[in-house]
Amino acid sequence: MTREKLGRFWNMYRSVIIMVVFAIVVGFANNRFLRFSNIMNILNQTSINAVLAAGLTVVILTGGIDISVGSTLAFSGAIAAYMLERGFSAAIVVVAALLVGLCVGFANGLFIARWNLQPMIVTLAMMSIFRGATYLLTNGSPISVSDKAFKLIGGGKIFSVIPVPIVIMIAIFIVMYYVLGSTPFGRHIYAVGGNEEAAKLSGISITNTKIIAYMISGLMAAIAGIIVTSRLSSAQPLAGQSYEMDAIAAAVIGGTSLKGGQGRILFTIVGALIIGMLNNALNLLDVSTYYQTVVKGVVILAAVLIDAKS
Amino acid sequence: MNEVLLEMKNIRKEFPGVVALDNAGITVRSGEVVALLGENGAGKSTLMKVLTGVYQRDGGSVRYRNQEVAFQNPREAAQKGIVIIHQELNLVPYMTVYENIYMGRELHNKLGHLDTKAMIQGSKELLGWINAEIDPKRPVQGLSIAKQQMVEIAKALALNSDVIVMDEPTDALPDDDVDSLLAIVEELRAQGKGIVYITHRLQEVFQICDRVTVLRDGQLIGERLVKDLDYDELVRMMVGRQLTDLFPYDPSPDTEDVVLKVEGLTNQYVKDISFSVKRGSIVGIAGLAGAGRTELAKTLFGVYPKQSGKVLLNQKQVEIRSPKQAIQSGIFYVSEDRKAEGLILSQDVKTNITLSSLKKIVRFGRVNRKKERKISEEYRKEMNIRTPNLEQLAKNLSGGNQQKIVLSKGLMSEPELLILDEPTRGIDVGAKKEIYNLTNIMKRNGKAILMISSEMPEILGICDEVIVMHEGRIKGRFTHEDVTQEKIMETIMRDGSQPKEGV
Question: Which of A70, A208, B24, B368 is most buried (CB neighbours < 10 A)?
């Protein structure tokens, strides 16, 4: 009985357990790791990936995938920088960048849900289109940003302690937790991913549900784009490249099933933190970045294997 | 000639909660065509799956060439000379005919290089044996169903099979092609093969079969020579069953209150369908698999578009284009396949129950969990869903309890018309009776019920009216008082294809 309970506890919270154990072990190996400033550093570094992963979790829950988020991030960031340099106010620029993300997501959803194309292929095409569009907009070189208000989004600190991106990340996860857990739309997302045919026969509009899911993913990519652009004080044509892979990895390490219908958003942030901590720890321990990439791959494999076995 | 090739005896096969086969069997002799007959769900396919190793038997013996055998999978059975040609053909459309015929057993030289020439030549010979004029080098895609079947048969011959099982081979064929297929069957018989021929078309039995084996409720009813049988006797063997008090018939109230009226409904699946369902009554739709019954239900439910015809709900014409609209209009459809279409198996009982009626438990855009729990609990009691708690995942419950969850979901949406598609398929007798009692309660609560069923006793037992469908059309209508199994069977068979005179 207790064994069974223990098993259930492990199944439910294993990503959290792994994260905590990892933190303790690294904390012993290097005393800088668990310092407050380093923890803030990790959270700040993780925020971009976590925001992208929040959107991807929604899409993956419907049984889809969105690999265009890296390009969407770059394009909405470039739009923001482009407009700022032409004198628009930070508020208008932010709204415009968010709209760009929503539109890319809507286009993805339309092709996937309305015209029944493969999510992988559609978002692969979009990835290429918007990377190209970013090159066109930036002419291949960074657009720098000097607007003070805009720079606060990525570089500001609340009470001079907590970086703004961390606050944005936490706010997003609270909202997403509520939406997925307590609204009819959240139920629809899980139902569509769990059994599309049954969801349809239960009176759920598959098309609308999926389109909104991709729009959320696009919106998250735009938010990440704004943070990145603000933090670097410039829009880079190569911004966000291959970020989609880390975001998918975060969702998967957090236990979201790529088959759809199963997974919880709060564990996605844990997945993102595990990746963030891993990079940070390997840096502190002076391991070459080349190894970091290898280790990340091993962690992803281990996560999927544990998932498949339980 | 006519030595016994294969003998299956006292076969028993159980699935969780259901005994699919009990004391079933068949004997196949060389140079003979044996018809394997029975109603839908009688166990024909299960018996053949036990034979070819898709399922492992729980009891009984299978002797093949005087040896006890137990194949682990269809591949092993095929290697030993027993193949099954399924209703759904197993060919790869993009590959050529000869590649399909030699799939998995490709001819090659010592270096592993494919011997294309030999395979093409071999295919030509195999196809020649059955007089099929098909170019081995063309792709399978684009061939007619009949030609594809010939390729399947050639594939079976390439394996040097002794026993060939054909599962409703003429079902998908136009009448012209049936004769050429039957000619091939005769050719195979002349070559000394043993053939198991599964069919619903009784006239074909008299045309080409030597012997019949009849199954009913998973039991062997009899093995007889065709020449000693007549049509009526055969039908009696197939359907003759005692109705028990399993069916608590509850006469419907005498009302003229029509809930659903369908006039001339036509689309790619159904033709010119007209009928009506009164408040508090159950209309049953009988027919064979593929008669268009599920398609009719899904058309009413907005899954398939209609081309012409009218649907009236409570005397008002409705245009339903999606299941969402159908549910809003007061129709709910309970699918025949509750695992694939009825439930989100990975989610819990309460989430499944409330899925179609989230509006009822939402306040200010937020799901009220207390209310969700309370309503789900009410349905759990009312429907007697046996589950340890409402958080149990749907996949962990038995078939009967799963069906009660789907029914709860349907009732929570407060439909005027409930369409039940094979509501008791794959659930045990006890749960069946509960479902029948529940339908009677729904009846008394003023629901109109349309029930599709392949189980004759249930059609006869609880329906107020019975519609018989075949090939997308309504072929007969009966009231509860004058319907019999023989009449339904006869309505279907009479129209199976061209009735043969003198039979």
Answer: B24
